[in-house]
Structure to design on (210 residues):
């Protein structure tokens, strides 16, 4: 009988990823160039929208740490809208139930993705949001495990993790062997609006996947 276990409870470290999926960080410096090469410029309208998102975020964040649902409401949803992920050809699935069966031992891991962006059945972006008090690196094993459940073996899948205060992008490929890499972290606390950088990366991912 196959054991059914939860991803959130059982994949909490990079050692867990290696043990369960043989997933390791690549040493190839050119594996994940999409987060910094050929990034599109922003329009004045996009810049104005991002300034509004930042202003609202600062207002609510100044009073207390934000819960996961609030981060999704104030940050994730508006960003996806400005980036064009709420319009054709993309589709939003939130939340999305996923599972993957592994061997040795035989187990089925199940989880619930906060937001999944899909283009013609191809996973473009898996988004995991955490409350602002949780360090962002702690979310990476979980989101990478979600990305491993992507059934399309021949295409890379991209991810974004955020706790509201900062953002990290990820890329995972299963071919020829499971490997991943991560971007720099984009911290929102400086005065300069880091949402500009985040949106440029989102727009770039939209370009290369359509």
């Amino acid at each position: 009988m196959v054991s059914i276990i939860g991803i959130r409870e059982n994949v909490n470290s990079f050692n867990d990823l290696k043990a369960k999926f043989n997933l390791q960080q690549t040493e190839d410096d050119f594996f994940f160039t999409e987060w910094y090469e050929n990034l599109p410029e922003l329009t004045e309208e996009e810049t104005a929208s991002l300034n509004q998102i930042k202003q609202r975020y600062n207002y609510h964040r100044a009073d207390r740490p934000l819960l996961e649902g609030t981060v999704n409401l104030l940050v994730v949803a508006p960003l996806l809208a400005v980036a064009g992920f709420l319009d054709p050809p993309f589709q939003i699935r939130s939340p999305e139930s996923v599972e993957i069966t592994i061997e040795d031992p035989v187990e089925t891991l199940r989880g619930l993705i906060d937001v999944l962006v899909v283009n013609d059945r191809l996973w473009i972006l898996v988004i995991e949001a955490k409350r602002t008090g949780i360090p962002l690196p702690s979310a990476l094993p979980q989101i990478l495990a979600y990305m491993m459940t992507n059934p399309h073996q021949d295409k890379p899948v991209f991810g974004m993790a955020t706790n509201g205060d900062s953002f990290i992008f990820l890329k995972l490929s299963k071919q020829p062997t499971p490997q991943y890499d991560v971007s720099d972290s984009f911290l929102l606390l400086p005065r300069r609006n880091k949402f500009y950088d985040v949106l440029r990366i989102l727009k770039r991912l939209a370009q290369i996947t359509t």
